[in-house]
Write a structure and sequence with these properties.
about 300 residues; Oxidized Rhodanese, domain 1; 2 domains; four-stranded parallel sheet; 10 helices; globular
Length: about 300
């Protein structure tokens, strides 16, 4: 091999080695086709049915939400919405909930207690407006198991819609003032409305001036809330003035929330008494006991 040939081969090997090296392109300078962007999440599914039913079969990708995890746990406010709204938002984030996303809530319709309505109402109260309810029977693709692997949603701050909720103190003030700018709607059964029952809540009957529309009448044959026209017709047929504020209540704010949500979807001024008559009776009894103690001390 001549010196010229040897030098030529050495130069060729060096050039080939250089061209064989991988070319690293910084991600920020890479063309769009090379970037692996994270898919944008636009929706979340919440299954509000009991834990056992969720474990047996639930929609794929659905998180399990228990209404009681978002309520107060001590008397006399047991069952009322937890007042720490930032905490509620944090819990919802873990289920993929964000105000920019469409949230589907799964329930059982008349076979349940109105849990899906309570969840839908709570979301709207906290500022999550894109919410819809479906019945579990509509779901075609299901899976089983205790828990889904759900990515936590970005941090968000609740924008509370205070008009969607009324407290015991506020409701007591309305009744005391005997104002005529609202309609009080008891969504319990007729027997509960008439005071037929064994517990203190049932025995107390109804709040003054309330009309009775059982919550199941706000559930369609498909097991989801009635549509806008049906909700309006139902309310007017029972004597509700739709130009006024509609205040719904039941024993614990579950069934009332379902009816409230249906009225909101019908573009009505609707409010849920989320503490319900259990809180009403609990506060009444607490105050009475305190008065008795004060009297005995004197």
């Amino acid at each position: 091999m001549t010196a010229v040939t040897f030098n030529f081969l050495c130069a060729w090997l060096v050039t080939a080695t250089v061209w064989a090296q991988p070319v690293v392109i910084p991600l920020e300078k890479a063309p769009p086709t090379l970037k692996r962007e994270k898919p944008v999440v636009t929706a979340a599914i919440l299954d509000a049915r009991p834990s056992f039913e969720y474990a047996m079969a639930h929609p794929r990708g659905a998180g399990h939400i228990r209404v009681e995890d978002y309520n107060q746990t001590e008397a006399p406010h047991l069952g009322a919405l937890d007042p720490d709204f930032n905490l509620l938002a944090s819990k919802l984030r873990a289920l993929g909930v964000h105000p920019d996303r469409t949230i589907t809530v799964v329930g059982r319709g008349k076979d349940g207690r109105g849990e899906e309505g309570r969840v839908a109402w709570m979301l709207k109260f906290l500022g999550v407006s894109k919410v819809k309810i479906i019945n579990i029977q509509e779901v075609k693709k299901k899976t089983s198991g205790q828990k889904e692997n759900i990515e936590t949603a970005p941090i968000w701050k609740p924008e509370v819609k205070s008009s969607l909720r009324i407290t015991t103190k506020e409701l007591q003030a309305l009744l005391t003032q005997k104002r005529a700018d609202y309609v009080l709607i008891d969504v319990r059964s007729r027997d509960e409305y008439d005071g037929k029952g064994e517990d203190a809540v049932a025995r107390m009957g109804r709040l003054p001036g309330a009309i009775n529309i059982p919550w199941t009448e706000f559930v369609s044959a498909q097991g989801v809330p009635v549509n806008k026209d049906e909700a309006r017709h139902l309310l007017t047929s029972r004597g509700a003035d739709l130009s006024k504020r509609l205040i719904f209540y039941c024993a614990s704010g579950l069934r009332a929330a379902y009816a409230t949500n249906a009225a909101l979807e019908a573009d009505l001024d609707a409010t849920n008494y989320d503490g319900g008559l259990k809180e009403w009776v609990g506060i009444r009894d607490t105050n009475q006991n305190q008065n008795n103690r004060n009297t005995s001390n004197h």
